[in-house]
Each structure stands twice: as structure tokens, then as C-alpha cells.
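My current task is to audit a protein record that another person submitted. My question to you is simply how this chain folds and whether the C-alpha cells agree. This is what I was given:
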Amino acid sequence: MGSFLKWELKGEILAAVGRDADNRIYLVAWAVVRVEDNESWAWFVDHLKKGLGLALGGDLTVISDKQKGLLNAVKDMLPQAQVVRMLATTYVRVSTEQSEKRGRNL
């Protein structure tokens, strides 16, 4: 997940979360980067891979909305990881596109 920082700090937070046996979400790792891009996500995923001993990501599922940098890094560094796109984000994007098309046809 990536999120903008405001105030004096600027930049973006990249974060990785997991779920425990009781289905509770917990923070695995986070980093502050200047900008969310392919290079930042590659750096973050590389550190996760090394720190957690993820090898090729065989038992890993990555859930993302539309972070191309994250998806590129996972594909390159964790090729066996399962990647799932968030349906809610996809639904909102498709609904917006359809609404815009209908508006142009009026």
C-alpha cells in the first residue's frame, strides 16, 4: 500500500501488512520514500524479500489496487507470488468510465 504524506515531511509511505491466525491485520514493514514509483517499490519489495526470506514468493499473496510499481516489482522479484487486484477499486474505476461514456452520448 502507498499513501501520500503531507506537512513538512512530504513523500509517501509504502507499507506491507499481514493477517494473523485470528484474522487480525498487523503491520509487517513500512518505509517513507520520496515518490511512489517502480524504483521505490523495487527497493521496498527487495528488502521485504530478503528480510522475510520470501525466496520466489511461492506462499505469498499480494493484494493491490492499481500500483503498477508494486506489481512490476512483485512480478520481477517474487514471480511465484499470487497477485490479486482489489475488486472495489476496479468496480469504481469501471463505473466511473461507464458514467463518463453515458455523459458524452447525451
Remarks:
- The chain has one domain: 2-104.
- The domain at 2-104 is CATH 3.30.420 (Nucleotidyltransferase; domain 5).
- The two ends are 38 Å apart (CA to CA).
- Strands lie at 2-4, 12-19, 25-33, 61-64, 82-85.
